[in-house]
Amino acid sequence: MPHVEPTLPSDTADSPRPATTAAYSERLSPGIWTYGAIALFCVFVFVMIVIASLPIAAAVSLTLLAAGSVFAFVTSPVVTVADGHLQAGRARIPVTLLGSPRTLDRAEVSTMMGPSFDPRAYACLRTSTGGAVVMDVLDPQDPTPWWLVSTRHPEALARAVRAAQGR
């Protein structure tokens, strides 16, 4: 189970918080294949409805295409390094509890997710990104051995984590 910090009463929207700038932020938006699958589904819907009415088929298909694309984008996880924390998707951990980040290419990610995978590990993956960063979890109370975080810019994410760690 990844280390997730609870929201404290002082962290509510009513309390003033200083504006901070993220050292690193990236949305892991879906790859072209995801949008292609959404479009293909919409074509199938169009073909099924067009027999009844062309305008209705077009309207339904275009609405589904727009809604599906927006949903795929909005639900994409965001990777952020800010305020001494790494956030990947909904999980968040202080960078002081992480070991030194190591960058991985696509082949190394496949190995980590195959024979080397530990089911206790936290993985925020998107196959469309190609690269990733892996970091050991140093917290002895956290059963999660490591975090594997997808990114299109592994070197930049690793640099941001190291900088936040003061290394």
UniProtKB/TrEMBL annotation:
**Which Pfam families is this protein grouped with?**
DUF3093
Q: Which InterPro entries match?
A: DUF3093
Keywords attached to this Swiss-Prot or TrEMBL record, sorted alphabetically, are: Membrane, Transmembrane, Transmembrane helix
Entry's transmembrane regions: 32-52, 58-82
- Give the superkingdom in one word: Bacteria
> What is this protein called in UniProt?
DUF3093 domain-containing protein
The scientific name of the source species is: Sanguibacter hominis ATCC BAA-789
